[in-house]
């Protein structure tokens, strides 16, 4: 997803730096993220939040969890944060990072976050781009560096090839990950779809009749 630049985005982000933390400042926040929320609670992070429908929905549905949406595109993060702010104001349990999700260990210390969400990530289908996939082994290593033991990565996609690749990656990298909790058609599985919060992409693909693949992986 690449969005056309919005002329208001930079100024809005500058004026709301208490909600959206710039990448440079975020690296100085390591070990201190709980201080940005009203209460100390488990922290869940979505890497690649897009326009923010999922992370906002999760924050509203689960006030007992602190959420951080991470997005590298200025326009996307500005749209996500402004939409949230306009709808419900400054939520006590929702913040954003305007920065690159590659190398989450530069933002968080070990066990500082409890769960990571990867929703409809770029599949990077060409073999030479394999290392850019968010379930490539170097990314799994980064997730291990910030999650506690038995920490969780929840992954959703419409791309069958990326889903299969991710299952293999989880189960073979270091032989430490378990990826037994999965579905090949999320919305046809009443047990697994319970409590599901949809993303913008998810709704788009569902309207086309495409199945949504999901896996929860632990290490």
Key structural traits:
219 residues; alpha/beta; 8-stranded mixed β-sheet; 7 helices; 30% helix; globular
- Classify the secondary structure makeup into a structural class: alpha/beta
* Element-level helix/strand string: HEHEHEHEEHEHEHE
Low-confidence residue ranges: none
The helicity comes to 25-40%
What's the end-to-end separation, in Å?
30 Å
Q: What's the number of extended β-strand segments?
A: 8
Strand content: 15-25%
Form type: globular
Compute the number of helices: 7
Structural features, described:
The chain is α/β, with parallel strands linked by helices and 219 residues long. The chain contains seven helices and eight strands; from the N terminus they run αβαβαβαββαβαβαβ. The protein has helices at 9-15, 23-26, 53-61, 74-88, 137-146, 160-172, 200-207, and strands at residues 20-22, 43-47, 66-71, 94-98, 115-119, 152-157, 178-183, 213-218. An eight-stranded mixed β-sheet has the order 1-4-3-2-5-6-8-7, sandwiched between helices.
Helix-strand layout with pairing:
Elements: H1 9-15, E1 20-22, H2 23-26, E2 43-47, H3 53-61, E3 66-71, H4 74-88, E4 94-98, E5 115-119, H5 137-146, E6 152-157, H6 160-172, E7 178-183, H7 200-207, E8 213-218
Parallel strand pairs: 1-4, 2-3, 2-5, 3-4, 5-6
Antiparallel strand pairs: 6-8, 7-8
């Amino acid at each position: 997803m690449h969005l056309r630049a919005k002329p208001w985005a930079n100024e809005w982000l500058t004026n709301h730096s208490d909600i959206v933390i710039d990448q440079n400042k975020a690296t100085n926040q390591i070990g201190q993220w709980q201080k940005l929320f009203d209460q100390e609670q488990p922290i869940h992070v979505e890497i690649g939040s897009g326009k923010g429908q999922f992370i906002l929905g999760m924050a509203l549905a689960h006030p007992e969890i602190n959420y951080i949406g991470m997005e590298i595109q200025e326009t996307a993060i500005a749209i996500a944060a402004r939409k949230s702010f306009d709808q419900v104001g400054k939520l006590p349990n929702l913040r954003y990072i305007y920065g690159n999700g590659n190398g989450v260990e530069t933002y968080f210390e070990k066990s500082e976050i409890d769960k990571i969400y990867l929703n409809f990530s770029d599949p990077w289908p060409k073999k030479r781009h394999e290392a850019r996939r968010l379930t490539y082994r170097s990314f799994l290593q980064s997730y291990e560096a910030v999650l506690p033991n038995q920490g969780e990565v929840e992954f959703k996609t419409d791309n069958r090839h990326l889903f299969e690749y991710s299952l293999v990656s989880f189960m073979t990298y270091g032989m430490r990950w378990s990826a037994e909790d999965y579905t090949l058609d999320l919305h046809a599985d009443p047990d697994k779809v319970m409590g599901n919060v949809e993303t913008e992409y998810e709704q788009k693909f569902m309207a086309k009749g495409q199945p949504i693949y999901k896996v929860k992986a632990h290490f």
